[in-house]
Specification:
This protein is of the alpha/beta class. The protein contains four helices and five strands, in the order E-H-E-H-E-H-E-H-E. It has one domain: Rossmann fold, CATH 3.40.50. A five-stranded parallel beta sheet has the order 3-2-1-4-5, sandwiched between helices. The longest helix has 20 residues. The chain is globular.
Length: about 160
């Protein structure tokens, strides 16, 4: 059976669960010709308002030294993650480590890449408000395509 998904965005946090997300994604495509984009978003707040909401996110040209180091570290971890993947020859993988609000950047990139499927992690915490986590919940409700939320293995059984 061929996958109906040809353009897949995988949102990774670069924790141990990221490998699990990548394995699940590769299981779905089963060697079909597919493009996979791995994205990691570094969330770095510069100023916080009274409601603890970020007031602004600067452009890449205005990054602080700390944020630049976080992005560089993310890129190194992403390269290691890709090395651990058993990628079939029919699958093209690209990666992106960017700065911003994770849910916003994931949804923006999904639109830009004309994504068929977004794969993201789910913490599986108890309580309806914590069911998916704020990022996964926002992706689920605003994505332009299908969403697969993969439960974190760190959750209670």
């Amino acid at each position: 059976m061929m996958s109906t998904y040809k353009q897949i965005l995988v949102a990774v946090d670069l924790s141990d669960d990221s490998q699990r997300l990548c394995r699940k994604t590769l299981d779905i495509v089963k060697g079909d010709k597919v493009n996979i984009v791995l994205i990691h978003v570094v969330e770095f707040m510069y100023q916080v308002g009274m409601s603890y909401d970020p007031m602004f996110y600067p452009s890449m040209e205005d990054l602080s030294e700390n944020e630049t180091l976080l992005i560089k570290s993310g890129e190194e971890k992403m390269a290691q993650l890709i090395k651990t993947m058993s990628i079939p020859k029919t699958v093209c993988v690209e990666s992106s480590v960017i700065s911003g609000v994770p849910k916003t950047e994931i949804l923006r990139l999904a639109e830009e890449k004309k994504t068929d499927l977004i794969v993201c992690g789910s913490h599986g915490r108890s309580g309806f408000a914590l069911l998916l986590g704020s990022t996964a919940n926002a992706i689920l409700h605003h994505a332009p395509c299908d969403v697969l939320a993969v439960r974190s293995k760190k959750t209670k059984e």
